[in-house]
Amino acid sequence: MKKEDLRITKTKKNLYNGLLMLMKENTFEEIKVSDICSIALVNRSTFYDHFDDKYELLESLIKDLKEDLIQKLKENRQIDNAREYYIEMIKLLMDHTKDNIMIYSSILKHNNNSIVMDMVYDTVYKDVENYIDEHENITAEIPAEIISKFYVSAVINVCLDYIKSPHKYKKEDILEYLSKLIPIKIY
User: Fold this and answer.
1) Separation of alpha carbons 34 and 47, rounded Å
2) Model pTM?
3) Whole-angstrom distance, CA of residue 27 vs CA of residue 140
4) CA distance 126 to 174
5) Which end of the chain is less packed: N or C, by CB atoms within 10 Å?
6) Residue 78 · residue 131 · CB < 8 Å
């Protein structure tokens, strides 16, 4: 894997941050490339050296966010108990959300599109599917697809509420509540 030049990394980071700052106050559709460049202190020609348009910039930002989430969820592979797996998955997702709260809150505040939530849902769903595939005895009574959709929807909704109202509940309290909600024998 080729390592990216530090200047390119810094430029992309500046462009990401510029886009996110603008998305706190404006819808994505209202934002112009020139606005992004102005806030990021990057020339338009430099922007176009890296991205074709603002859509590609947003796509790149979300791709990087997804890669980070995938890496975070991989930390949860050693757990054989399904209940503990879900609790740890929720903890990892909440940590990822907290670490990237500027991105999530910027995109969700004035931008009602579901692109980020779709990415999170798809990533978590794939992780749950992989977990179920690795533990074949899990799906004896209920189809894996139903189990995955049920738990992923619950996890995503709890995390979405955590993003929208970060001070409503402490992470530890949410995890405790969820450990009471998730039965010991899931399948």
Assistant:
1) 9
2) 0.78
3) 46
4) 23
5) N
6) no
Query: Two tokens at 155?
Result: 């996890």
DSSP 98-163: HHTHHHHHHHHHH----HHHHHHHHHHHHHHHHHHHHSGGGGSSS-HHHHHHHHHHHHHHHHHHHH
Q: Is residue 127 within 8 Å of 76, Cβ to Cβ?
A: yes
185's tokens: 């024998």
pLDDT, tens digit (0-9, with 9 covering 90-100), for 4-20: 688 989 999 999 999 99
Determine the Cα–Cα distance for residues 10 and 40; give it in Å rounded to an integer.
10
DSSP structural state of residue 167:
T
Length of the chain: 187
